[in-house]
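To whoever picks this up:

The parser on our side crashed when reading a file containing two proteins. I've narrowed it down to the boundary between the first structure block and the second sequence. Both blocks are reproduced below exactly, byte for byte. First block:
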Amino acid sequence: MADLSVVQEYMLCAVNDKGVISAMDTDKQVCLVSLGLAEAGKAGLLGSKTAYVPRREAVGSVVEMLRAEVLEDGTMTEDAAALTVLLERGKCLKPYFSAFEQKEIREKLRRITASPEGRLVKEMAEYVEVILAAAVSGAVASGAV
């Protein structure tokens, strides 16, 4: 499989098996298809809609890479830390990691962000929190929630 960016890895893990990720337009999903990471399928009650579902092999590859870097001893790359923060804040870890593993992941992220070397990861996590808060407040203000 080709080297993927953190965003591509996040999108693979964030799109559910029905081809849905909130606030994601079709153009972004088609990018995953063009990379061979997702495939078009039928969706909706009558199968009249098109959904772009990530290929299991592609998701599995990303999850196994995360398992190796996050759950095993050793250093974690900034890309793996960034992807983990995105998946954790987006509540996308549950399908791939047990409750025990999720707890270990959160603890490792806390340790990393508390270290001087983890400054960039901490800043990125704070930035994700600000964006999520703005999205929620915007949705509440517009009456969407």
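<<boundary where parser fails>>
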Amino acid sequence: MPMDSKDNKNVCKNSCFIDSFKYAFKGVQTVFQEERNMRTHLILGITILIISSFLGLKQNEWLWIILSVFLVLVMEILNTIIENVVDLITEHQYHPLAKKAKDMAAAAVLSTAFFSIITATIILLPKLFILFI
């Protein structure tokens, strides 16, 4: 797969478009196979979506819940990208800046997860109290 497609501009535009989806799905497959945290976030996200489906959420509440779940997944993908690029550049050798970049990428995921927890708490907790009390 060439990284520079200048030579192939006029060749099979539709199949290249379809190929871009294939590569994107391959990326999704790779991150789920190789990243335990991504699988954990997905399971938790699906659990929240299932719980939400029984609570009669309004449209705007659904939007916040879905946004929160997807933000965590996207941030985990970005974290994985950063980790892989840092490992590629440093050839798996320790460097303080590499550690800093990886730590900050992980912090972005953690911050997004906290946002999701707060969002779910604000939306779901009152509905769960009404349901069980």
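After patching the parser it read the second block fine. The mean pLDDT is 91. Helices lie at 13-34, 36-53, 59-90, 96-132.
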